[in-house]
Amino acid sequence: MTILLILAALFGLLLMGVPVAFALGGMGLGMLYLGGFSPLMAPQSILSTLDGFILLAVPLFLLMSNLLLKGGVGRDLFAAVQAWVGHWPGGLAVATIISCALFAAISGSSVATAATIGTVAIPEMINRGYEKRFVYGLLAAGGTLGILIPPSIPMIVYGFVTEQSVIALFLAGIGPGLLLVSLFVAFAMLHARLSGSFQPVPKASRAERLSASLRALPSLALAALVILGLYSGAFTPTEAAAVGFAAALGITAFWLRTLTWQALWEAIRESAITTAAILLIVAGAKVFGKAIALYRIPQDISAFLAQTIDGPVMFILVVSVVLLLMGLVFEALSMILIMTPVLLPAALGLGFDPIWFGIYMVIMVECALITPPVGLNLYVIQSVARTSLANVARGVWPFLVLMLATVAILYVLPDLALYIPFKW
Fold first, then answer.
1. Using CA atoms, how far apart are residues 109 and 384, in angstroms rounded to an integer?
2. CA within 20 to 30 Å of 336's CA: 111, 192, 206, 395, which one?
């Protein structure tokens, strides 16, 4: 009964328009007071949370992705990939997906990936006769690769909350990320063959491929620097973010010379606003998490699930439905911060690996990014394409099905996530 009252109060605050951070923090503080616990636990929890070194990676990765966005790097990446695969069936769609994957390997941000590649790809694909809803859905879903293919801001937050290795999470995201890219590419090519409503792109000459590849080479080198530095142990995630930001600044300001002072200021301002929002949500969730831990709610939920759910398969099915429903009203980080402390104990009790469960959570959060009414990527593509939210939402359903198929494959083949970090 207590759990239902807490959830009802939390949803009530959110429906009244209270920001997520203040709804979580206020609920946590109220629960501490009503439960007879010291309210001083709230500021102590906030200070201990925001003091984490790993969280420094968040503003640095955001700065890096915003610099690349303002510097027009997405245009160069898309042009280079298009030069190589644009003549395939559905080649522009394939180029868009691969460009999203490459930018995801640099930025760690879903919104930045969708906005950067969408700005270039949407007009190009529509001019070539691709169905508009398919284009919008492709870009909204392709943007979600930004949080599955490492580096990933949600993985950083999950690792911080659960005290798991962020680098292990990054490594675990490679296999599922490549699988999802492959599924998206296969669907795009199948859609192109069945619809036929597009104009093929002529095959680029060797000179055109070389020119486009050289233009995109600094961005690819940046991705290689960050990824190899992380996986070789040369950088911590925070150091990789700092090095990536410095390299992105050098590429856009001095190599490509596409970054103006105005664009630099906008990148800093937008990164600061997003960072403040993320850290406020993390702080509010920490207070809420402290309160529900003192109320022993995670233990009660774990016991309830153990008694009522028959085995791991049913657990994953139930949790997936719950997360999909939460995705209708919560954004990505809120879902991770609210549900991880509640679900992880039950998952561990059923024998799930915490790193595997983190990747599963991230994929489900990807689904939340493209489910109306609060899917952030839907609003990004709506803004870029200047279309209605309904048009974007209708286009994402096939890709949502592919994401859920990835979850099913990940359950059947857990080594898809665990092989690289632990067995390679």
1. 17
2. 395
CA dist list (Å): 157 to 164, 171, 423: 10, 15, 24
DSSP 213-272: HHHHHHHHHHHHHHHHHHHTTSS-HHHHHHHHHHHHHHIIIIIS----HHHHHHHHHHHH
State how far Cα 116 lies from the chain centre.
Answer: 15
Distances (CA, A) of 414 to 140, 154, 245, 408: 27, 20, 33, 10
What pLDDT, on a 0 to 100 scale, did the predictor assign at position 1?
A: 59
Name residue 316's amino acid.
I
Helix (H, G, I), strand (E, B) or coil at 17: coil
pTM to 2 decimals? Answer: 0.87
DSSP one-letter code for 204: P
Distance set, CA 139 to CA 8, 44, 85, 87, 118 (Å): 35, 41, 17, 19, 6
